[in-house]
Amino acid sequence: MTKLEIEQAYKQYDKMLHKLSHQCAGKCGRPEEDVYGQACFLFMQATTTYRPGRGAFGTWLYTCIKNGLATWGIKMDVPRQLPADWRPGLVATNDPVTTLTPDRQLMFKDWLANLSEECREVALIILSGPAEVLEIGTGGCRKITARMIKTYLRGRGWTYPRIWQTMRELKQQVQNI
Fold first, then answer.
1. First to last CA, the chain
2. 65, 43 in Cβ contact below 8 A?
């Protein structure tokens, strides 16, 4: 995109940037000005990674900004407030697990081993990273989605009923963890 096209696009989509910034600020607890600054940065990334033949710029921009702000919001999340009755020695039980201990690694390997062949294949596709497997574009604007996985599997010759059954089964297995 040329400099003039970028300026025109910014004027056209400025309200969308503000709206998405406001939504993200409410979810991650950061000041709206900080989130808007990140949205503007993502806007510039979207202008450099946009390919005109692949769809409308507005759709590409919305996807890049929404996904980028979600990722940024998770990284920049305000620490949780301690409950009023908190005292030293009290451990919160709802904190997410961020590292895999040897016990958890063993449990995870067992879980993978107990999946059906199709579910294991899809799980490994997800865990391998979408960029390598699904050939996601550069710029880091896109996230892996169920639709991408289904398209990839369809390209490998899987039938729709097989894909749907595998996705249902995998979803059920993940919920049972």
1. 47
2. yes
Q: How far apart are CA 168 and CA 41, in angstroms?
A: 37
**Alpha carbon distances (Å) from 71 to 39, 63, 74, 109, 175:** 12, 12, 5, 27, 23
Spatial CA neighbour of 166 closest among 137, 125, 134, 129: 125
What's the CA gap between 128 and 83, in Å, rounded? 38
Q: Are 130 and 136 in contact (CB under 8 A)?
A: yes
Kindly report the pTM of this predicted structure.
0.48
Quick: pLDDT tens for 83-104: 555 554 444 444 444 555 777 7
Question: What is the 3-state secondary structure of the chain?
Answer: CCHHHHHHHHHHHHHHHHHHHHHHHHHHCCCHHHHHHHHHHHHHHHHHHCCHHHCCHHHHHHHHHHHHHHHHHHHCCCCCCCCCCCCCCCCCCCCCCCCCCHHHHHHHHHHHHCCCHHHHHHHHHHHHCHHHHHCCCCCCCCCCCHHHHHHHHHHCCCCHHHHHHHHHHHHHHHHCC
* CA distance linking residue 42 with residue 50, whole number of Å: 12
Q: Do 69 and 39 meet the contact criterion of CB atoms below 8 Å apart? A: yes
For 65, counting Cβ atoms within 10 Å of its Cβ (0-12 exposed, 13-18 middle, 19+ buried), the class is buried
